[in-house]
Amino acid sequence: MESGRRFTQIVTINFLTAGHTKFAPDWCFGLVKQAFRRHAVLSLEELASVVNGSAAVNIAQLAGDSDGTTFVPAGYWQSHLNQFFKPLPGIDKYHHFR
After folding, report:
1. From CA 88, how far away is CA 85, in angstroms rounded?
2. Which residue range(s) make up the domain with 77?
3. Which residue, 95, 80, 72, 97, is CA-closest to 21?
4. Averaged over 56-77, what is the pLDDT?
């Protein structure tokens, strides 16, 4: 490399509008959606069965039970995180960073 020459690297990141991404898990959700349309689901257990039967890669993980038992504690995250972050206006629009 000659002295005095500078090489610059440019990184471009494009974020698509929500709902229009090509994200691998979307394919798995599509399989669940197709299976859900073909079955009558009346309980969480039946929904878990549909998810598990939709594809080998889909495994249902229930956050609670039909009787109201909670397996995963949930909270209102927005009020908790507001003390650390500011809202980002236009988050659902196209974003291009360079």
Report:
1. 9
2. 22-82
3. 95
4. 88
